[in-house]
Amino acid sequence: MRKRPFKRTQFALGTVVAVVAVGVAAEGISYRHAADMLYLVMSSDRAVYAQKVVQRLTRDERILTASEHFKDDSALPLPAQMFRFGAELVADETDDFSYSLLSLHPINKKNGPGTALEREGLQYVADNPGENFYGEEELGGLRYFAAVYPDVAVAEACVGCHNNHKDSPRTDAKLGDVMGGVLIRIPMD
Amino acid sequence: MLTFAEELVLLLNDEDGVPVPVQEDAFACALAGAVLMDLAFAYRIDTDLQTLVVTGRTPIGNPTLDRILRKIATRPEAADTRTWIRELSVDEAAAIHEEVLSSLVERGVLARQAEKFPWILRTPRHPIIEGEAAHGVSRRIREALHSDDIPDPRDITLIALLDACDLLADIFPAAEIEQCRARIEQLRLMDLIGRELAGAIADIERTIIAALRARSARFRKLLLHLSVFGGLAATVALLAPRIPAPDRFGPSLLQSLWFDGLWQQWSGYLLLGFSGAGLLAVLLLKVRPVARLGGGHWWRLAHVGFGLCCALLLFAHTGFRLGANLNAALMVSYLAALAFGALAGISTNGAPQLRRMGITPKLRSILMRLHRVALYPLPALVAIHILIVYLY
Amino acid sequence: MAKKAALWILCVSGTLIATAFVAIWMVVGGDRRMLLIGKTTDAHHQIETACETCHAAPPFAFAAAAAKALNKTCRNCHEDALQAAEDSHARKRFRSPRMAVYWQKLDVRLCTACHVEHRPEITRPGAVTVAADFCVACHSEGDQDVRKARPSHAGLPFDTCASAGCHNYHDNRAIYEDFLVRHADRPWVAAVPVHGLAMRSRNQKVPAEAAKRGAALAPAVALAAPTALHDWAGSGHAAAGVNCAACHAPTAAQDASRAAVEAQWIAAPDTAICWDCHKAQVKTFAEGRHGMRRHPSLAPPRDPSRRLEAIGLGGLLPKAAAAWLADPPRPVRMTVAEARLPMRPEAAAKALHCGTCHQPHAVDTERAAVEACASCHDDTHSRAYFGSAHHELWRAELAGKAPLGAGVSCATCHMAKVERGGKVVTSHNQNATLWPNEKMIRPVCLDCHGLGFAIDALADADLVARNFQGRPATIHVKSVEWALRRTQGGVHDHFQATR
Fold first, then answer.
1. According to the model, what pLDDT value does residue C358 have?
2. Scanning B46, B339, C148, C206, which has its CA 20 to 30 A from the CA of C181?
3. Which residues of C touch A100 (CB under 8 A)?
């Protein structure tokens, strides 16, 4: 096997989450419960990366930067990128579940709502702060359970980048705003 | 003495006892005509413009002639010569042929050998035992054609019958017949028999010519046109530049036809099916009970039709791209089979036209053989082609 | 009658026998070249008889399973390069079910959606088998409609996206917008044009010492060879203390006596010996077209007896048949004669291994960087190199008239130096910077040239054929201007530390 340390770290996270998903399904736990648990793992890991790595090294200790082009800039990946890389690796490893970070005002258009349910869910979590959205939809001939969790701007950095990025369609975001949502899909048999 | 029908069968039986391939219709009409002419020579029938009348019911002694005579005599309503030629050539030709062969075998002129292989196409052969009787007919006809003597009236009648059915060129070299064309016309005009008999014979002859023209011309022309069309289409398709694959992204019929696996399987298996159907049509044609139904024309038409469909499907399947290696071998073999098939069709159904152009009927058998030879490697190549698709 | 029967028997049995023979070749072993349905693409033609390398699915697998297995094999050889290219359309990005709508347009989860092998007629540059305007599949509708998202692109035809020097499907490392903006203001050639890694690499070179001659430890007959000793003494090997035995008697102990070395002496060691010390070079050699027949992912020749066992016919194979059923020998060396590029006829018999370019004793990297290439390659680009500005710089560097790293040899661009763990090594994968040629911009061109100039030069096929004699005149790719125009004000990065 080729050695890909980066991938391996990411894979570890993916595997943990996958095991949770498969494990709960075996116990007969509802799709909703499984999605909630997956989201908890994702959001916790993301929070840890944002606070303990990015925030600390860039703002507090000021020894590194974080950048969209982290490789060219020898910098840290942005928290949203980190989250997405994980989602891509999970998609590469399993069809048991998938997740993505979406927004009604995405910087990259491919992260905008792509299906009716995505649009409905993102709108719901934007209109109803603190609430999650659950639904079902059919994609590529398969039926999926889908959950959308609100993604709130927790740091000044999030708001700043989204308001100022050349490709951002929204420039009036404030701390505490719902910026988008995390979507988790689990195929239903 | 041999009857006209017996002489006809002997003329059309080759050295090995295999029938010379001729148009079935012509042969059937010739048999029907031969029987009626024998009856006329025996003064049992006479014809006028409206009807064919029985003038004597005494049996002649030949079972076939007597059976047909009874059939004509017992028919309550009167019928004309045309009706009888049609009825006898459609309903009785096969039986007459069989009876004539049996009679010749009984008399020791021919032997009968059952063909043992292949079982499905079992056709008996009738090798010549008594050469003098068998070869005598053709020698007499030849002499009549080449000398200036006055031949026997029966020989003249037989020549006229063969000429009416356009069978002379199938029995003798076509060039020889062309050379003798003037003599044939001269012989037909000779007035060596009584007026009444001559009138009946001429009536039968005319009727046969008319019937053959009406019956077979339609098919012949259709077959000829189909063959010519197939040949032309194949030539154009082979010589024209390949239609390139479309250079635009998106749904495209040609791209799907030629490069999509699922479409390729559909067109491929359809092609295989139609090829099989074409082969089946020609195999059934060779089995006598089937050939007896509909006189073979429909089967021949089906064969040519399936061949044309195969050419169209081949275009759908490949765009006439040759491919590489074994695929190329398969394509070359298949295209050769189609091309020689079309040419053989032209040479068979356009025989009179070709003869006028000085092309001998020998060409037909060469083309037929090439058509068959091109088919031999196909089953193996097709099997390998299919295996490659599913194994890789 | 007998003739007819014989013909039938011949025809039926011939069909069965021919089919059976070919089926055996397919399933058990034997020469399968005649089964190829069409010309294999360049490079893959070197390995076209190692069918199982790609056709990994079991026989008669269902179409979907077969396609999956086939596509998995693509990644065996190409995954590393795609990862390095930061593949813009990586498969993993399309596996989420939210991409289902795109799967119907062009299912890019499968490599074979765009790259089908053995289809010469529809194979376009880059082994692409979809029409050049394939971007239209997904980027012409909704949010992804580039004509709406980018007003500058409104009237552009889709067949120019990936052919004009602006975008690539996989590798956009040197042509993505922020990169264009960041490098927009660089002059066409740097004030001090020096290839940094090449400079470091050539500085690593230890000067040869003639005194090493006496240290050579080899049988007398080998030492008497006309040039071997002389070449070795002047080589990097000698300078680094690599004695004759290291290659000629690898089994001998490090401090073995002359007698021991002589006892284990191998007159012509296999090139596998190079692997012992030059792992990175040998590995990358197998990734490029020169050495791909050594790639570890290639399927080995089939073992007929084991294949027969697999279908329950083991032990039924007579010895003679086994030899006949063996796959044809598969040379591990590419020969010049098999190349599809124009080559010198006198080089046709050459087979590629380490020693083909690096003479085994002199191991002269300067010769390997230019003369070795030109001893085989005979295309217009190669011929035009001699006398070009790049060549003049190379000659100047060799003559000591230009700084180390200023010269541009064939290897500078086609066997680019890479840094691995702080060490500079030469990638022997000549393909790493070759196709699409924008791959060359970052590791090579930008060391000396401005980005806009490099993009234009590489997009100008005539200029490439002339080996860059002159300047890009007819072609100008507007991507830098467009990127600047769209991003007036530059990129904001709010994680930038305020040191």
1. 92
2. C148
3. 96, 98
The model's pTM is 0.81
Strands A142-152 vs A98-102: parallel, antiparallel or unpaired: unpaired
Helix (H) or strand (E) holding A40: helix A31-48
**What is the rounded CA–CA span in Å between residue C105 and residue C114?**
12
CATH superfamily of B4-211: yeast vps74-n-term truncation variant domain like (1.10.3630.10)
Q: Which residue has the tokens 């509909």?
A: B294
Cα–Cα distance measured from residue B30 to residue B167, given in angstroms and rounded to the nearest whole number:
9
What confidence tens digit (pLDDT) does each residue in C28-79 have?
888 888 999 999 999 999 999 999 999 998 888 888 899 999 999 999 999 9
A111 has a pLDDT exceeding 90: yes
Where are the domains positioned within chain C? Answer: 32-171, 211-276
Task: Provide residues of B within 8 Å CB-CB of chain C.
Answer: 113, 115-118, 125, 244-250, 259, 261, 321, 323-327, 376-377, 379-380, 383-384, 387-388, 390-392
Pairwise CB contact (< 8 Å): C158 & B249:
yes
Q: According to the 3-state scheme, what is the secondary structure of chain B?
A: CCCHHHHHHHHCECCCCCECCCCHHHHHHHHHHHHHHHHHHCCCEEECCCCEEECCCCCCCCHHHHHHHHHHHHCCCCCCHHHHHHHHHHHHHHHHHHHHHHHHHHCCCECCECCCCCHHHCCCECCECCHHHHHHHHHHHHHHHHCCCCCCHHHHHHHHHHHHCCCHHHHCCHHHHHHCHHHHHHHHHCCCCCHHHHHHHHHHHHHHHHHHHHHHHHHHHHHHHHHHHHHHHHHHHHHCCCCCCCCCCCCCHHHHHHHCHHHHHHHHHHHHHHHHHHHHHHHHHHCHHHHHHHHHHHHHHHHHHHHHHHHHHHHHHHCCCCCCHHHHHHHHHHHHHHHHHHHHHHHHHCHHHHHHCCCCCHHHHHHHHHHHHHHCCHHHHHHHHHHHHHHC
C494 touching B (Cβ < 8 Å)? no
Q: Do C98 and A185 touch (CB under 8 A)?
A: yes
